[in-house]
Amino acid sequence: MALSLHISHINAFQRVIGGVFRMVGIMQVKRLSIAALIVLQCVLLGITISSDTVLVETKYGKVLGRTQHFSEQLSGDIRSVNTFLGIPFASPPVNRLRFRRPEPPAAWKLQVYNATFFRNVCQQPQNSFFENSIRLVWPGFNWEKDTSEDCLYLNIFAPGNNATNTSELYPVIVFIHGGSYVFGTTARHTTPGEVLPRWGVVLVTIQYRLGPFGFLTTGDSAAPGNWGLLDQVQALKWIQENIKAFGGDPSNVTILGVSSGGASVGLHLLSPLSKGLFHQAIAESGVELSPFAFQSVKEAALKTKTTAKELGCNSENSHDMIKCLCKKDAQSIVLNYDWVSTGPVIDNYFIHDTPESLRRSGKFYPVPLIGGFNSDEGAHNTPKVYYPPTEITSSVFRDFIKSFVKNQTFHDNEKTAVLIEDAIEFQYTPWSKTSDSPALRKKMINIQSDYFVAAPTVEVLGIHSAKAPTYMYEFSHRSKANTEDDWMGVKHGDNTPYDFGAPFLNITPLTFTEEDQNVSSLIMSLYANFAKYGNPTPQAVQGVTWGEFNRTTRLYLRIQGRPEIEANFEPQRMAFWNSYYPTLLKFSNHIAQEAISATNRGNHNEGVERVSNPGLVSLLLASVLFFLAPGPV
Fold first, then answer.
1. 3-state DSSP call for residue 430?
2. How far apart are CA 116 and CA 124, in angstroms?
3. 186 and 199 in contact (C-beta within 8 Å)?
4. 507 falls in which pLDDT band (50, 70, 90)?
5. Which of the two residues, 32 and 463, has the higher pLDDT score?
6. Which label site among 281, 426, 474, 554 has the fewest CB atoms less than 10 Å from its CB?
7. Span 446-458, mean pLDDT?
8. Is the torsion defined by CA of 212, 213, 216, 218 positive or negative?
9. Would you name the residues annotated as active-site residues?
């Protein structure tokens, strides 16, 4: 059993060992070998040294981990994995470091850091879904005790046959978890670390500050924000400094993220602070152009003021407000902060412009990139009111679209929203099955999938492919062992266990099949190749060679029981969001502005007349614009 030993306990050891040294005498201590000192430390700390423990020397001090052995062969000849859990990559971001850039951790020289158990999960709203997931790999996890601002830790999983021999270094994959910048941790049953390294890579999983602790901003120098992204940068710097000791190659690092972690990967491709810290990138189910990837500075700063007022802080002066918030108990901030729509902003430090502007101006790192999504991403967001057995009629479908435009899109003008609603309804109505409830529900899912993930991913990959090798996938595999909620298809997050080899372990509530193991093996082989060579298939994997995506061929890999290469994913739906929708937004905003101008001139009827008829006129305008809009480029 892992000893629940925190850094405070380790630090207390220095006082204990000093007393022991005085007892045995200085001359005797000098004759003790380095190995003996290490053993003595471990004995005093209650750490059991055995053939299954491994010791590594980092820039900050020695780290003790464990070696896991496997009898079966999965890939190559790697049958053991060295595991190091809860290593600090930054100083605890508490007290004066709350709402501040991360600082390097303090060294623990002359001490042994016990990295055999998980450390704190970052502060976040208590959530039973995540709590149950954590407890599957950390049975003793307690939300009140094991969540904290002091959470900047990483885990390292390295092939066991190269722990200290640096003559052959393995490529490194760094995983950035998702969770809408609000939830998440490295310790979950969906992201085990002990399988992927057997494909010949070093896996590092990192935590970063979430919600207000990671993204609160005043919009000025008092608290520019993006603390969570800066935590990620600090983790990447720590890896550059120390990963060689674990058998990892600091000159060959791949960053991998899912959902908001995928969006984070995309933002690192744009940030001057991330230059040279990674060499390949994989963005799953989220990119920097996804609507959830980035926030308005104005709205984020307003949210900070609202929180400050709730907590009794003066919000008139930004610096005074932050000083006041720094004195508040962490839990009071958790309870009084609006966690919805939290995330990165322009801070003129990590990022200097909007992701769209930087992408379209070519200001991104031309490293090899994989991007993709699941077939039914939007099922994850579908409101429960539309779940079966609710009958989805044409009017219910329209109500859903109206709610979607009002609550999910960036269009905030009620007078012209009907133009957007008409266009979406026209594009997604299953015209041959207008009274088919399952078909209409599927289109609800498609609308959300395309808007939030698929269309932004296709757009990013198209831009990126002009400068660097680019690959696209669609994950369409649904386990035959999964018999719940068939209507959801392959929803957001369903791919993650396959990335990390969960089908080969027995730690999840799911029952996996042999086909699931083959799909997982496929993904891990592709990602390991990509980390090693910048190409997922230097040789065919399971009979497939994954061709590059570009604006001409638009090739992509459909990941399923029998993987296939396809081309031009849903071209009309992608063109709708990437070409037509932006044009329609500009047009509707122009109409709204004309209506306002007409009203100001006193011609009130003219202004209302332009936007009050949602019928044939708006549909005709939408149709005309659709044909005038530029095609996909």
1. coil
2. 24
3. no
4. confident
5. 463
6. 426
7. 98
8. positive
9. 259, 377, 492
